[in-house]
Amino acid sequence: MLDTLIEGAQVVLPQGTFQTGLGIQDGRIAFIGDDPPKARTRLKADQLVLLPGAVDLHVHFSEPGRGHWEGWAHGSRAALAGGVTTVVDMPLNAVPATVNPDAFALKRGLGEQKSVVDFALWGGLIDDNLSELGALHRCGVTGFKAFMLDTADASFPYVPDGLLIDGMQQIAALDAVLAVHAENTALIAHRTARLRAAGQDDARAWLTAHDELQELDAVRRALLFARHSGCDLHLVHLSTPEAVDAVLNAQRDAQAVTSEVCAHHLLLTDQDFVQGGAEFKCAPPLRSRQATDGLWEQVLAGQVNVLASDHSPCPGEDKAVSDIWRAWGGINGVQVLLPLLLSEGVLARGLPLHELARMLCHAPAVRAGIAHRKGSLKVGLDADLVLASLRAPWTLRADDLQSRHPHSAYVGHRFGAQVLSVYQRGVQTVSNGRLTRETLRMGEWLPPVKAPASAGIR
């Protein structure tokens, strides 16, 4: 007998969307079909869509060390409220950064104590930890993350080109993946110095320093270095169609590489940044409406591999500065990731639901090495489920945010779709859009079962 049977919803399966039943037993999906066995609980979900819980491959919860920025407890609740049931936390912003086994153990322990969603962890490649990469890999990191851009953070220095190649060669030997933030730090530093010397400290100055040219140059160099070293590459938060095209061309040449586009680059533009100020600051920055539309064309054509949030919140005072160079660069976004993509993709542009699920759920799970448990509605996988309405317009208020500091570039935005219910390993933890705190459960750390590979990620 099933524990729970969900009936009447449009169920988003890998091959398409179907009105059928889905059954849960012992925390796993036990049945999908039209002739279900008996169930202790039967839930009617007419007029709703049933999706896999989203897997956000790119979040910064900033704990240990900077938990006052967000932390596992608040960040994971924000994720859960938005239908993200699994996160993969980046190695930086935490102090110590996740660049050696001790730091990994500390972050894993905090996640297991505080997170209410399941999670995996990226390790870091920085300027002095090549000797730690093998040990980090054995700890069970999803992969490694490196910056081609100077982070201005002593706990996570960027990696110059020569060291980047050395790191890629070592990561290739581990049969692991390297995620890269691709921006040209030399070009940016040169432009920044000139702009600051001229007294320019507003959003337009940030956009000038971080223009599209420098990003495309860094993407192309990362691709060249990865091809030379044989390293499996994941390029994060690509912000221009030209950058995605560079990845597509490499994929056509059979290079092991995947692309990631973040929700803020699909909705917000450079004009939002100019008008709204530091709340909209990120790197790479928001681009023109033309670039945003071009990215959507690539998403709709199935040319983007992964959609993510790059959730990176901070205390309000770190945004409330007039000097754009000193303002924190990051957007609070994990809680609206799924509603935004349902609204702007499915409703506004006709993106098929199963294609959204591929980019937001399945492909990130494959990339993280956890697709044996997460990312799809298949019998045997964890019953991480989202029931959403595509007929429930709402406007985000600061009070809706579960983050430690309830401010976001998305506050005031009107969404057309809403997450109503979330199940985690078969237990309902969101009901009517609200966390059911009495049933919240501790998240599990998810080690990869094998080296994540770009092969098979369309």
From TrEMBL:
A GO CC term attached to the entry: cytoplasm
GO biological process: allantoin catabolic process; purine nucleobase catabolic process
Listed GO MF terms: allantoinase activity; cobalt ion binding; zinc ion binding
CC cofactor: Zn(2+)
Chain segments annotated as transmembrane: none
Residue ranges of domain Amidohydrolase-related in the record: 49-413
Protein keywords: Hydrolase, Metal-binding, Zinc
InterPro entries given in the database record: Allantoinase (IPR017593), Amidohydro-rel (IPR006680), DHOase/Allantoinase_Hydrolase (IPR050138), Metal-dep_hydrolase_composite (IPR011059), Metal_Hydrolase (IPR032466)
Assembly and interaction partners: Homotetramer.
Protein name: Allantoinase
Organism: Deinococcus aquiradiocola
